[in-house]
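Help! Submission page says 'invalid entity' but I think these are all valid:
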Amino acid sequence: MKRLAIALLLVTGLSTLALSTVDAPAQERVRLTGSGASFPFPLYSAWFKSFSGKQATISVDYQAKGSGAGIQDFINKTVDFAASDAAMTDEEIAKVPGGVQLVPLTGGEIALAYNVAGVKGLKLPRDVYSGIFLGKITKWSDPKIKAANPGLTLPDQDITVVRRADSSGTTFVFTTHLAAISEEWKKGPGVGTTVKWPASDKFVASPKNDGVAATLRQTPGSIGYVEYAFGKFSKMEMALLQNKSGQFVAPGGKGGEEALASVKLPADLRGWLPDPEGAQAYPIATYTWLLLYKKNSDPKKAAALRELVDYCLTEGQKMSAQMGYIPLPESVSATVRKAAASVQ
Amino acid sequence: MSIVLEGARSPDSVATDPSSWDVLADRLFRGLAKAAAALILLLLAFILWQIGRRAWPGILEYGVGFLTSTTWDVGRGHFGILPAIWGTIYSSFLALLIGGFFGVVMAIFLTQDFLPPRLAVVFRTTVELLAAIPSVVYGLWGIFFVVPAIRPTANWLYEHFGGIPIFGSTLSGPGLLPAALVLAIMILPTVAAVSQDALRQVPYRVKEAAYGMGTTRWEAILRVMLPTAATGIFGALVLGFGRALGETMALAMLIGNSNQLSLSLFSPANTLAALLALNFPEAGPREVQVLMYAALVLLAITLLVNIAGGMIMNFATRSIRK
């Protein structure tokens, strides 16, 4: 009996000792939490996971709530950083005392995915794809589509347009581009995370990228806009779009990088590319930003954030292309690295 | 006989007056029950106040026009929910028509001795399992199965009977009919389970009496059992309708979310619940006000349906008792 008691004591004593040695380094861990854009979420989660894995002392949690919600969290100071596809407006920036550092970390393309039996490598001129989304071009056999695709046999089928039902940064980027190339779009539906789409039986909406993708797959004769990364992984047919200089460019190639490079970033790093120049630039592309406080309450967190940005700009960029995002052009990443130093 | 039983208390009876502990326990339990009931009312009032407070600026700004306008344009600040109200009621009504019919028929089938009891239990559990499937799964199933399955029939109907308003457009993908069909399956377990309870509560003697009077089986079911259980069955239908009004995710995936007023079963439409769920995450402060207003409208519709249901139910029981 006595022996048992001693043994028990020994075991408990040893285990507490063992536990306390394991616990010690964990106490110094810096935890960064962020929320915001869902558009770059697959890339961010890969980055943050590998960053947290390599850094014993820093862990990063990111919640893809949507750009709008991320900005709200950022203004309310419930997060350490946020992410947004629409950067921040001056009005929103004014609500953050101490200032905001916007950090573009990657870019993305919006692809037009379609489901027409037997049609591959569809080319869509500018007036045609804006016409389709305005509800003016309603048949796949429309002479304008035929003229741009002499080699393809296009069916005499109604075009069903699939759009995002939820408000999203993807819609914002897409409508910004349409407004830049079509006066009628600018006056009609306009620009926004949700807009008033043409009223037609042939316009349907689905929630999130997955919903749009599923609806596209199940609806013969449909076309819709999705993030390129999403279209790539769900293996959909994506159209070649005509850019400003008249070339037809497929998403996912060098076209995205050329689009990003075509815009000179201003001092606040809010660069918009509604209709990028450049012979081989893909026409619908955007930067997406990390939002950081210039003045952080905890210097350890500020240091961790700078380290995170640095990692994303170096190691992180190698993952971008593979995951369907656009790596930052060399000139841009140098500017961004300099800017990130202002996070204190 | 009855005179002996009534009030008879022999000196050696086991019955005693309630002890003070019994009285206390009774009071305590009664108080607890009352508090729980009051809490439900308070909770509802709190929810209403919370939503109402946030919706108030929107109500002041848009007023009744909000209920009758058909545009939803965030960029220009035009908000109207008539198509969503219409879509909510239309889709729920269709679902009730289909799901209600099958639910009640199923309840009759499972309670009126058509099946050996053991088999009936298997069927009952299977129907109840339908209630355990998540809404998103129903939505995906709708997109991948229901839509392709009904498309040929829908387009045939449009080609041959396109003149009739309910067949007035082609079904391209998501739309009112697939949404209503999936919704019907979703409310089926509710309707079937509550109707079964109602039918089972009718004493067996009633049915035996009907048989004794020489009715056939179907006469006994349709003329005696159903009217006697009518109140409960009606309650089941109201519950089902309520569930259909509030259903969100499956509808958001299937209805097409298009702000249109159309009688056609194949057109895309919109519902209030879907509108709320899809627009909240990225809504700006101004949009939140109108979304709260829309939430109030949805609450009001559900409340009205329940009150109307209760009134019809009362009326029905009274006419049966006569």
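Support: the input was valid. A stray whitespace character was the problem, and the output above is from the cleaned input. The two ends of chain B are 32 Å apart (CA to CA).
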